[in-house]
Structure to design on (313 residues):
């Protein structure tokens, strides 16, 4: 399919990880993130790429990293194409393969790559919910709680919560992530650090929610990831930083504010559109994922691009 990229290798540069969406390369003192056009749903990578998706994720992450730096420092160094290519070239030059005839496809990095600082990532995803949807809605229907947090009676699908709540989850390399309560998060990270990521996540969400509202978008929920940046001079005083991606259609639910009506699913500018289609199929949510029809692929691209335009134009 035109304008898509599902994988990339850079001869002479070590690939550390191939995730659900991103390829991660080791550049020595930094990492190179390359966002592909792969899409996952229910933690399964689907066979069809979504045109322009990787570039949307990269542009939005760079945008939010810049806008939220006053709340939390982050791992972003640059997304500038020339500096990215220079960093890759320098790493190749230092490698045993620098004389190889194989040449990286540098152009494929344009618009979808970021240089980021190395850090120690946490094994917990920091989810903030401002509205009732997804797995939170399922739990609420059973117990009137979400991740152990008691919520009022009478809420319905897509209801705005009385206040945003922090609902962490464990990160799974394979299979499904698991929602956990704050006490379990504190056991994993230690209570002081768990409190810090909770408070920072809530502050980031509140700022982004208020900004997005001025652009006609409701951020129903979002997922943040954090890590520790070690300071060589004082390794015992590492710094908490925001990592991975930030407030994208992959990590968030974006709803159009006009027409918002609780009590039913909302139209969205994110991959919920793909999830909704998959829910109509007889699929057990295990690999391999089903092939997406062209109409779903095209409309998903349009939704991602609209989110980018509304938030950044």
């Amino acid at each position: 399919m035109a304008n898509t990229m599902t994988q990339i290798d850079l001869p002479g540069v070590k690939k550390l990880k191939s995730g659900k969406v991103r390829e991660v390369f080791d550049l020595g003192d930094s990492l190179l993130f390359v966002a592909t056009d792969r899409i996952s749903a229910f933690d399964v990578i689907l066979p069809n790429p979504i045109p322009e998706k990787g570039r949307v994720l990269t542009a939005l992450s760079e945008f939010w990293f810049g806008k939220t730096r006053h709340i939390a420092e982050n791992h972003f160094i640059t997304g500038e194409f020339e500096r990215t290519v220079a960093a890759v070239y320098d790493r190749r030059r230092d490698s045993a393969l620098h004389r190889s005839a194989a040449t990286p496809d540098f152009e494929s990095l344009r618009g979808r790559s970021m240089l980021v600082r190395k850090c120690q990532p946490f094994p917990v995803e920091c989810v903030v919910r401002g509205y009732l949807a997804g797995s939170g809605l399922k739990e609420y229907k059973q117990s009137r709680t979400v991740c152990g947090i008691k919520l009022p009676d009478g809420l319905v699908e897509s209801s705005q919560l009385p206040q945003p709540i922090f609902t962490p989850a464990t990160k799974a390399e394979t299979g499904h992530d698991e929602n956990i309560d704050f006490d379990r998060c504190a056991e994993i990270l230690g209570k002081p650090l768990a409190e810090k990521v909770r408070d920072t996540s809530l502050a980031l969400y509140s700022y982004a929610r208020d900004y997005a509202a001025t652009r006609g978008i409701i951020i129903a929920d979002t997922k943040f990831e954090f890590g520790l940046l070690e300071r060589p001079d004082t390794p015992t005083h590492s710094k908490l930083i925001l990592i991975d991606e930030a407030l994208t259609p992959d990590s968030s639910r974006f709803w159009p504010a006009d027409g918002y009506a609780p009590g039913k699913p909302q139209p969205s500018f994110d991959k919920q559109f793909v999830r909704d289609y998959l829910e109509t199929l007889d699929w057990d949510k295990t690999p391999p994922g089903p092939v997406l029809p062209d109409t779903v692929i095209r409309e998903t691209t349009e939704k991602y691009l609209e989110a980018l335009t509304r938030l950044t134009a």
Observations:
- The first strand starts at residue 14 and ends at 18.
